[in-house]
């Protein structure tokens, strides 16, 4: 099958010099029928199949996009070798756009495009061609695939998809410094013609910036860009396709270029001199004034530091990091009388100097700060100002001179000074001071051993202005005098074994002395004169302010003498020298073979403090038995208490206790002897099911129930209740209580009143229960348990069945 394109397509291909892709089917294709020559038939013999040699077959067509004609656009033609023009072959196509965009003439094989194509939407269409027998619709040969390519035309302008652009470049950058890159996109086919070849140019701002024609890189065109003059530029960059040729399409975008700052400007003081004034009484650190240098740069390029070039002895300068101001403050105390005007040279220096611009000049500036000191009335000044140290002998007499303090008025007038001692620092009034001369004298006897130093505060004030006062510390050292004898240091006791050898060191003694001579201590040890004839111990001075006690003999016996007293004389090296005698007590003790002391008594008994395992076990068993006994006792007590509570709960009788308003309250149950009321009647519990025992009822109730049966019950209901027995008993008890002088008069009168027939609760009294004809059934009382069994016997009537039985 052959494909033939339009003559316009062939002409366009020839013009562009493009060789359309084609192929030659060397193997051919087999088919069952077709036009076959006689020679071929003879060569093939009687075979029904024959191989046909194909010619050139084109597998792609070209169609121009954006066709605006009114007629369908001819694309090309397909043809098979077996088509002899007799009209017995039908051509069909299938695939992308077949039947809608592309139509084929079934008879001739001509293909037309019926719609306007856009290469930017779809660049090619893949279809398949088929030649069929028109009568049988059988394929005459296999399908052939071909492609219809949409040829591009320059119908899309370049577009800056990432715009608008914002870039930056440092000021004073050299010519050609790259700023940024812009890119334009063209939707046309970059492989066909020049429709997608884009070039760039600057429409507005070309004086300061240029753009590379092919890459779109924007560069500086001048070297004197100054941020302080203009800090941003607006450029318009244009992109043109067709490589900038006539008829090309173009698009543009806006580019904003920000000029960044560099440190190209030094700091500058607006004034060459600043004047401030300060009082001479201002404290150290007091700010005198503020100055500031300006810098045309921005950001960290404006950071600067200040320093003092001249006048830095009395003043200092610091930098306020918030405001970048120089703060001049006092470094040392000012004195109007010494100097009234000071000139301070302050210099401002950039912190971040760019070495590329050092040739532009020095990045620093100076100004003069003139400070005028004003006079004020000042308090006296002590000499020396940091305090005085004095010394006095410990044995100085009262009124002796300790030392003199000096102070002066620093003002020009030099007013007279008065001195005094701050008594809060000398509450014992050991020292006095002359108010005019400042001489300090003793007021009491000193003792270095109590206080070696005295720290007092002296006050100096102007004679006519007491508010002008100053204070100075005075330290007085008490010089030592040898007035304390040396003493033996503790302990004053030593021990010696009975088997000590002659010359054995048994103790080393030392002394203490409360004095502190400047040359140090030196002590001498000897035995007291009364111990000169001692034959038991000797004393040897070690020459380091200690002495050793040694034995002179052996064979000490504590049963003969167990304690020895050795008097020792100690003398110091002071002037005059002082001495004291101390007694060392030496105990004779029994020792073991290693020399360890066992006992120092005349009769020694050694007892072992440790318990044997058997004794320890016996002690633990005794303790365990005691614990078990205590638990048993507690268990028995709890058991008895539970029995008592059970008995109390089973007592069902009502206790009638009467109190008057003056009684002891509800808990007072001792007003009457309740045992009589409790034991007046014996109410044993009934064991028979026929009702309570007749003996358990009161006598007045027994008389009414003797008759039995219904007649007896009716007679009992009609007879009035007899309460004379209770009345006599209560009357007798009341008379006994009135006659008993040991009981308070617990008289009481309780009134019960009927609530009336209109009360929904009716009467709560049970007095008329037996005399009424009420038909109320009290048999439910028998179901209330043992506590209400007695009450059920009173009110529950006997059942007819039980009475009949």
UniProtKB/TrEMBL annotation:
<dbReference type="GO" id="GO:0016477">
    <property type="term" value="P:cell migration"/>
</dbReference>
<dbReference type="InterPro" id="IPR027397">
    <property type="entry name" value="Catenin-bd_sf"/>
</dbReference>
<feature type="domain" description="Cadherin">
    <location>
        <begin position="270"/>
        <end position="382"/>
    </location>
</feature>
<feature type="domain" description="Cadherin">
    <location>
        <begin position="488"/>
        <end position="605"/>
    </location>
</feature>
<dbReference type="Pfam" id="PF00028">
    <property type="entry name" value="Cadherin"/>
</dbReference>
<dbReference type="GO" id="GO:0007156">
    <property type="term" value="P:homophilic cell adhesion via plasma membrane adhesion molecules"/>
</dbReference>
<dbReference type="InterPro" id="IPR000233">
    <property type="entry name" value="Cadherin_Y-type_LIR"/>
</dbReference>
<keyword id="KW-0732">Signal</keyword>
<keyword id="KW-1003">Cell membrane</keyword>
<feature type="domain" description="Cadherin">
    <location>
        <begin position="80"/>
        <end position="160"/>
    </location>
</feature>
<keyword id="KW-0106">Calcium</keyword>
<dbReference type="InterPro" id="IPR002126">
    <property type="entry name" value="Cadherin-like_dom"/>
</dbReference>
<dbReference type="GO" id="GO:0016339">
    <property type="term" value="P:calcium-dependent cell-cell adhesion via plasma membrane cell adhesion molecules"/>
</dbReference>
<dbReference type="InterPro" id="IPR039808">
    <property type="entry name" value="Cadherin"/>
</dbReference>
<dbReference type="GO" id="GO:0008013">
    <property type="term" value="F:beta-catenin binding"/>
</dbReference>
<dbReference type="GO" id="GO:0045296">
    <property type="term" value="F:cadherin binding"/>
</dbReference>
<feature type="signal peptide">
    <location>
        <begin position="1"/>
        <end position="29"/>
    </location>
</feature>
<protein>
    <recommendedName>
        <fullName>Cadherin-22</fullName>
    </recommendedName>
</protein>
<keyword id="KW-0812">Transmembrane</keyword>
<dbReference type="GO" id="GO:0034332">
    <property type="term" value="P:adherens junction organization"/>
</dbReference>
<dbReference type="GO" id="GO:0016342">
    <property type="term" value="C:catenin complex"/>
</dbReference>
<keyword id="KW-0130">Cell adhesion</keyword>
<keyword id="KW-0677">Repeat</keyword>
<feature type="transmembrane region" description="Helical">
    <location>
        <begin position="615"/>
        <end position="636"/>
    </location>
</feature>
<keyword id="KW-1133">Transmembrane helix</keyword>
<feature type="domain" description="Cadherin">
    <location>
        <begin position="161"/>
        <end position="269"/>
    </location>
</feature>
<comment type="function">
    <text>Cadherins are calcium-dependent cell adhesion proteins. They preferentially interact with themselves in a homophilic manner in connecting cells; cadherins may thus contribute to the sorting of heterogeneous cell types. PB-cadherins may have a role in the morphological organization of pituitary gland and brain tissues.</text>
</comment>
<dbReference type="GO" id="GO:0044331">
    <property type="term" value="P:cell-cell adhesion mediated by cadherin"/>
</dbReference>
<dbReference type="Pfam" id="PF01049">
    <property type="entry name" value="CADH_Y-type_LIR"/>
</dbReference>
<dbReference type="InterPro" id="IPR015919">
    <property type="entry name" value="Cadherin-like_sf"/>
</dbReference>
<keyword id="KW-0472">Membrane</keyword>
<dbReference type="GO" id="GO:0002009">
    <property type="term" value="P:morphogenesis of an epithelium"/>
</dbReference>
<keyword id="KW-0479">Metal-binding</keyword>
<dbReference type="GO" id="GO:0007043">
    <property type="term" value="P:cell-cell junction assembly"/>
</dbReference>
<dbReference type="InterPro" id="IPR020894">
    <property type="entry name" value="Cadherin_CS"/>
</dbReference>
<dbReference type="GO" id="GO:0005509">
    <property type="term" value="F:calcium ion binding"/>
</dbReference>
<dbReference type="GO" id="GO:0000902">
    <property type="term" value="P:cell morphogenesis"/>
</dbReference>
<feature type="domain" description="Cadherin">
    <location>
        <begin position="384"/>
        <end position="488"/>
    </location>
</feature>
<dbReference type="GO" id="GO:0005912">
    <property type="term" value="C:adherens junction"/>
</dbReference>
<keyword id="KW-0325">Glycoprotein</keyword>
